[in-house]
Design goal:
56% of the residues lie in helices and 2% in strands. It is built from 12 helices and 2 strands, in the order ααααααααβααβαα. It has helices at 5-24, 36-47, 57-62, 70-76, 86-93, 96-108, 110-120, 124-135, 146-155, 160-176, 199-205, 221-224; strands spanning 144-145, 185-186. α2 crosses α9 (146-155), α6 packs across α8 (124-135) and α9 packs antiparallel against α10 (160-176).
Amino acid sequence: MRLTPVSTLSLLSLAVGLSFASTAQAAKPPAPDLSNAELQQCLDGLKNSSKFSGVDGYTFNNYRPSQPDPSVIQSLNYQPEFQKDVWDYLSSLVDKERVEDGIRAKRQWSDTLRKIESRYGVKAEHVLGVWGVESNFGQTLGKKPLFESLATLSCFDRRQSYFQGEYANALKIVQNGDIAPSDMTGSWAGAFGQTQFMPSTFLELAVDFDGDGRRDLVNSVPDAL
């Protein structure tokens, strides 16, 4: 790839920013002790709050976590992209194997990628880049139960208001029938699917690109891309 002056400057800015961030962050903190009683009390309050007004009682109660997950609070305060030197971080994102996987994926999904570029004007290489970084072309989706993660983040530590909205939106996705509850797993912060959408992003932007009546970023490559 030939770098223009603008793209080179962007990479250098990223490098400097990540290098400064890597020296500014502390070591990974221990997982905190979280009170289940506090979690349940918090969820009781959320159930009747305005953010959850679009979530029916059955959905809220059926997927209500029975306990918090302390590890997500640990992750909230430690993000590895800020702990590595920039070149180590970039090399972990792009290596020879991932490039080869991307070339194969481009061949396999060429028709879908052409349709995406025709409809949205986004080049295949850009779509593949996001797909490769976010889930290694659908191979690594994350195993954290979203409802447990988002409920914990909604009730403990910082950014609770943001995560409460994401928790409500995750419940709406299942309530709407787009994603099976068993497929609602992902990152510690609630991102899921082959392109790692947050629930709010899913509700705003997800597309049924394969025409089966569901927006499924987990099992449908066309929908994810």
